[in-house]
Amino acid sequence: MSTSGSHESQLEILDLRHFSGAQLRSLLRDEAERWQRRLHWDYTQASNMLMEYLDSRILPGYVALQAGRIAGYAFCVCEGAKAVIGDVYAFGETECRDNPICNTLMNHLLEMVEGMPGIERIESQLLMFPDGALWETFHQHGFKAYRRCFMLRDLQAEPPRMDVVPGDLCMGKSLVVEAWRPEFYDGAAQLIHRCYADHMDACINDQYRTLHGAQRFLHNIIRFPGCGVFDAENSWVVREQKERTSVDFSREAHWGSIEGVLLSSRVCAGVNHITQICVTPSLRGKGLGRMLLEHCEREGARRGVRQLSLTVTEANVHARMLYERNGFETLHRFEAMVCDSARG
After folding, report:
1. Spatial CA neighbour of 160 closest among 321, 322, 299
2. 1, 108, 137, 241 — which has fewest CB within 10 A?
3. Per-residue pLDDT reduced to its tens digit, 95-109
4. Is the per-residue pLDDT at 164 higher than 90?
5. Lowest-confidence pick of 67-71, 129-133, 255-259
6. Looking at the predicted structure, is the pLDDT value of residue 167 above 80?
7. Is 2-147's fold the same as 159-326's?
8. For the whole model, what pTM was predicted?
9. Is 80 exceeded by the pLDDT of residue 176?
10. Alpha helices of 282-316 — where are they, by DSSP H?
11. What is the DSSP letter of 96?
């Protein structure tokens, strides 16, 4: 146990593994309500999954007690040589840059992670905090910050044109748009790795750097509710259609590689979040990304989606401009934090 702060606001910082999900229920409920209010995101499923992990008493992290009552919590998840900051939250914080309880919790958490043997990298993307909110604490521990934008497209205020079909996709190849199917998994992972291996976002998320990492990234999007519930009916791939020859005996022999991907998840009733959009490098600048966005908007609107959200690295100017031209507006900015060669 440790203490922090003045006598009036003194905190007790305790091991998270001493607490059950039920004990943190009111805190998690408050956090879920704030996600809904600020980001149009139903965080209930993620909270329920977290409560199960809390009951297993395996998550490394801390709880802050103030006057004997739970005031906040923080935890991380370890994946081999990498630690990912899962969350930090406290009653009454996250909406401004002054977050004393969260800063205290984060300082304790980072010190713990730095002391873990074998940890070489720490990543964090705390979507709820405005940029700069926890910067001093992260900076003291040697982190680099990457500013990111949370963007929203209101399909009711500016409805997509419903009488449009996907444009000419030839571009020197015969390309076809198809809804997501499980057999696209490997090809989509290969495309994600190909698109991001040397991209600025690979500095933020090292899963992009290897094919195995891209497969893991894709698995997490599809299987876990952290980014909402995967919406296969409004997730799309663009595939090359090859010319049939006399030696083509199977249906799959007729298809080439996946050249574009847009994946989305349901984060709330009537709200989808685009978790991934990428186009093979050789076809960038030819309108394929815009076509995928517009297709997702139309098909989503037909199924009752009222809003679409996404995140983008602010320095990725071409992507950000594409989204802005397509009606996405920045709702708020947050920071991705990264520390390589973590101490410990």
Report:
1. 299
2. 1
3. 888 999 999 999 999
4. no
5. 255-259
6. no
7. yes
8. 0.89
9. yes
10. 288-302
11. S
* Average pLDDT taken over every residue of the chain: 89
Task: Return the beta strands (E) in 228-341 as ranges.
Answer: 229-230, 236-241, 255-268, 271-279, 307-313, 329-340
**Among 7, 10, 21, which Cα is nearest to 50's?**
21
3-state secondary structure of 126: coil
Query: Strand pairing of 11-15 and 61-66?
Result: antiparallel
- By CB atoms closer than 10 A (0-12, 13-18, 19+), residue 161 is exposed
Q: Which CATH number fits domain 159-326: 3.40.50.2300, 3.40.630.30, 3.40.50.9100, 2.30.30.240?
A: 3.40.630.30
3-class SS of residue 194:
helix
Does position 344 have pLDDT exceeding 50, yes or no?
no
CATH architecture under which domain 2-147 falls? 3-Layer(aba) Sandwich (3.40)
Spell out the domain ranges in the chain: 2-147, 159-326
Three-state DSSP string of 26-82: HHHHHHHHHHHHHHCCCCHHHHHHHHHHHHHCCCCEEEEEECCEEEEEEEEEEECCE
